[in-house]
Design goal:
alpha+beta, 419 residues, 7 strands
Amino acid sequence: MTTLGTGVLRIRHWLRDHPLALDTALALAVLVAMIIGSFVHPGAPNGPTFDIRRPEASGVVLMVLGAMALIWRRRNPMAVLAATAGLTVVELVRSDPPAPVVMSTVIALYTVAARTDRPTTWRVGLLTMAALTAAAMFFGAAPWYSQQNFGVFAWTGMAGAVGDAVRSRRAFVDAIRERAERAERTRDEEARRRVAEERLRIARDLHDVVAHHIALVNVQAGVAAHVMDKRPDQAKEALAHVREASRSALNELRATVGLLRQSGDPEAPTEPAPGLAVLDELVDTVRRAGLPVEVACTDRRPPLPAAVDLAAYRVIQEALTNVRKHAGPGAKAEVSVVRVGATAEVTVIDNGSGGGVRNGDGGGHGLLGMRERVTALGGSLTAGPRYGGGFRVHAILPVKARTAEPKEPGAAGRTGENT
């Protein structure tokens, strides 16, 4: 059964790829049916009787011409219908009883109905039905109400109806297939968009972790090298800070990269992402690196949403890292987190002298990453030199985080602008 089904499926595919061969086979089958039908006498006393008459040569020619016309029914259905209808009218007028040339017209009318629209089917179908039925009634020897005349009317009408039904079903199936393909494309695009967003988020986290801790390591290593000979105790303390910062960097890198593991991997991280709850630890780390930091105000209750909490933490972390790297010697920083209505405002200021390096001309990604992270949540971020010296980073985050609208492609493009 499997072999038989496979063979039938192959034949169907081959016929679908070679429509002319299919139409030729159909024309041959219709010719055989017409020739067999021409041996039937419909007006016999005891009803239609087979093999009591012989088809005339002219009738055979008309049947052959009608069948040959069907070979081109897909290329020009209207012309084929006109040709077969004309041959049928000729046979109805000249012969009694006529040869069943009307079979070719039925197939041609079905093709027109299946390949055109409904108004065309109605117009052409009614015209064909009227012409053939009138020819059969007016030129046939049987009464106008005979079964043969109404048979011509019924067969042509059914051909048009069946063709229209097939066309409607094809259109319905095509519409369903198109909707399914469009839905599949939409799902693929949404999946690609989510993957891109997740990759960007992980890239931001990696940058924040690496930039912050490596900057601290660099500073402490420089201090240790500077005081190694004269103050070994202070050098040991600096190296301890290097070791602690390195351990913290490795832990955060392990947690971030662990997000890329398989869901069943036991090494995947289970600890929550950092937030304002560990702000004191971040500030202590920066202070131990030699940067005085004052937390002017922190408002952590009620707790912020997870995405907003993480974004606020990363903004403070990156801003303090920039202060440490670019503010120059003797700089101090001040951090504040304030809830204002439905927003949370995060501010990091310093009094350093190297703020011009942080305007984005240096080619770094710190300010870009901060602005992208804040914009993705529906907030805004401004960063620039302060009046009187120093630098200021100010982020406004909505308490209820939202994703930037798709119609705002500038979420990524605007990050490089200076505000």
